[in-house]
Write a structure and sequence with these properties.
Blueprint (H helix, E strand, L loop, with lengths): L9 E7 L3 H12 L4 E4 L8 H4 L20 H6 L9 H14 L6 E2 L4 E7 L4 E6 L4 E9 L21 E4 L14 E5 L3 H13 L2 E6 L5 E3 L7 H8 L2 H10 L18 H14 L15 H18 L3 H7 L12 E3 L2 H4 L5 E5 L5 E5 L2 E4 L2 E4 L2 E4 L8 H5 L1 E3 L6 H4 L18 E3 L12 H21 L2 E6 L1 H16 L29 H13 L5 E5 L7
Parallel strand pairs: 1-2, 1-6, 2-3, 4-17, 6-18, 7-16, 8-9, 8-16, 9-12, 10-11
Antiparallel strand pairs: 4-5, 5-6, 13-14, 14-15, 19-20
Helix pairs in contact: 1-14, 9-10
The protein binds NADP nicotinamide-adenine-dinucleotide phosphate.
């Protein structure tokens, strides 16, 4: 039954999404006395970690860092069992937070927000859901995550396929049993690379269809040790502060020397040391890996050589080695035994870079004229990232303008937080903010705090709407691209660039200027009286 308890009501704020953004924002707004409703399309909290239940799903930011910092008791009391947490542990944490702060009572689950229209005369948003609820709110916040609209490619005959199909980003809640099955996995991004080793242990046979090989680093994951946990918990206050001012929103020991300034021997030793430590700090081996192609080539070649050492069949090893883009410019992957999996007898790799999947048949798929019969297909084919979820809601600002139309040539935001002509609509980690180029939870906390500070500022000063100035937005959009153009990122066809979605404008969507720098820019903006934003004052008669 639709939740109509508060049908037709009005609240201060409506939040879309009950992932890490929505949960913290609800907690903050409620604490500040703003009446708030959250709508969540899933049946429970957790966002990304609610949907991405595929075998092997795991975070590649260390647990001690991929967690909320806003509550000292929470961060001291919570125990993470592993260095890099598995999806069930992160989901358990999201549930714990929701229960601990009694958040679920203000969240309406199983409900998708379908439309949000700004009424200029009333200066209020009208929000509609797929359960027929209609609610008015002064503030409308999309806390919908950056990677939440799963993408299944349009391949001929896909509807005729009679076997089971799965997408990693919308995985069933019950255990899926692949015992004895022949599986096709399409896609070798972070999700595919995590799922393939686990699937291979269960299925009779796994055929991986690879369009572009990915650079992947071993996680070297291990159980959490008391000593490591203590080293964080005893210094959490300082360490979290360092994270907030760091480049990535996480502490990684970045080497401040250029790759070509050291000898070949030292370079190889540095790469080897970081490969052995595991995870993304490898990309911090030298300070110019993402800005200097020649430097980057040395790291890329090191990884290709590692792949050749691990994978026994030279032809397969060669296919798995990325050659067409610099390392790190597509999202770097972190794995647990990915390349080793290709040494198994029950795993095959099919290169579809030159010969795309032709079509599905009722019992399999065809590539280059060859039919592969499979019982199940796992689509690890990614997401319509950054904008896809925003566009699924019919969002209309001033003059009935649709967000989708305004952003036809690419997202236009000021600070990745708001878009001009959409007053009082905020995006948590929106396009143009560090978002996916950072430790998401650190960036979420910063954006949530910025939103709540803005609302408090408005309330204290009798202001009713907030909106970016056009010039500030134009300048920010330019700045986001300038920052990207100083790096190697535009050289890759990545979802950062929108390249994975046919017809999507090709430009770099997150802000790559660094988490610490971005935070400073936001703090300066506030110190300068919310420079770049304009406000409308409450009409005297309307003032409550
Ligand atoms: P992804 O990185 O976009 O990878 C999608 C894969 O599917 C790519 O290999 C892509 O090939 C392939 N593909 C797409 N369309 C295809 C088609 N028509 N035919 C054949 N292959 C096709 O998606 P993802 O792996 O789900 O990861 C998305 C993001 O989620 C990650 O980059 C990361 O930010 C996040 N994530 C993080 C973790 C973690 O923390 N460990 C885990 C999972 C996901 P091309 O490369 O040629 O496009």
């Amino acid at each position: 039954m639709p939740d109509r308890r508060k049908a037709g009501t009005s609240v201060d704020a409506v939040i879309v999404g009950a992932g890490f953004s929505g949960l913290y924002l609800l907690h903050r707004l409620r604490g500040l006395g703003f009446s708030t409703r959250v709508f969540e399309r899933g049946a429970d909290v957790g966002g990304t970690w609610y949907w991405n239940r595929y075998p092997g799903a795991r975070c590649d930011v260390e647990s001690m860092q991929y967690s909320y910092s806003f509550d000292e008791d929470l961060q001291q009391e919570w125990h993470w069992p592993e260095k890099f947490s598995a999806q069930p542990d992160i989901l358990a944490y999201a549930n714990h937070v929701a229960d601990r702060f009694d958040l679920k009572k203000d969240i309406t689950f199983d409900t998708t927000v379908t439309a949000a229209h700004f009424d200029e005369a009333a200066r209020r948003w009208t929000i509609e859901t797929d359960t027929g609820e209609r609610i008015r709110a002064q503030f409308f916040v999309m806390a919908t995550g950056c990677i939440s609209t799963a993408q299944i490619p349009a391949i001929e005959g896909i509807d005729s396929y009679k076997g089971r199909t799965f997408h990693t980003g919308a995985w069933p809640h019950e255990k899926v049993d692949f015992t004895g099955e022949r599986i096709a996995v399409i896609g070798t991004g972070s999700s595919g690379i995590q799922a393939i080793p686990v699937l291979a242990q269960e299925a009779a046979h796994v055929t991986v269809f690879q369009r572009t090989p990915n650079y992947s680093l071993p996680s070297q994951n291990c159980p959490m040790t008391d000593e490591y946990e203590r080293s964080w918990k005893e210094h959490y206050t300082d360490l979290r502060e360092n994270m907030r001012s760091s480049f990535h929103g996480s502490l990684k020991d970045l080497n401040d020397r250029p790759a070509l300034s050291v000898s070949e021997t030292e370079r190889q030793e540095t790469y080897q040391k970081r490969w052995d430590i595991g995870g993304t700090p490898f990309l911090g081996s030298f300070n110019d890996l993402l800005t200097d192609k020649e430097a980057n080539d040395t790291a890329a070649e090191f990884v290709r050589q590692q792949i050749k050492k691990i994978v026994k069949d030279p032809a397969t090893a060669d296919l798995l080695g990325p050659k067409t883009y610099p390392i790190g410019t597509k999202r770097i992957c972190v794995d647990s035994g990915y390349f080793e999996t290709y040494n198994r007898d029950n795993v095959d790799l099919v290169d579809i870079s030159e010969t795309p999947i032709e079509r599905f048949t009722p019992d399999g798929l065809v590539v280059d004229g060859k039919h592969y019969a499979v019982d199940s297909v796992v689509f690890a084919t990614g997401f319509d990232a950054m904008t896809g979820t925003l566009f699924r809601v019919d969002i209309r600002g001033r003059g009935g303008q649709a967000l989708k139309e305004k952003w036809e040539a690419g997202p236009r935001t000021y600070l990745g937080l708001m878009s001009e002509a959409f007053p009082n609509m905020f995006m948590i980690t929106g396009p143009g903010s560090p978002s996916v180029k950072s430790n998401m939870i650190i960036s979420i906390e910063q954006h949530v705090d910025l939103v709540t500070d803005s609302l408090v500022h408005m309330r204290a000063n009798g202001l009713e709407t907030m909106e970016p100035e056009r010039q500030a937005e134009d300048d920010w959009v330019d700045h986001v691209q300038e920052a990207a153009n100083r790096t190697l990122f535009p050289l890759a066809n990545s979802w950062y660039m929108g390249s994975n979605i046919p017809g999507k404008p090709r430009l770099f969507t997150p802000y790559i200027g660094g988490v610490g720098r971005y935070r400073q820019i936001c703090e300066q903006m506030v110190a300068d009286g919310y420079k770049g934003f304009r406000f409308e004052r409450k009409a005297a008669a309307a003032a409550e």
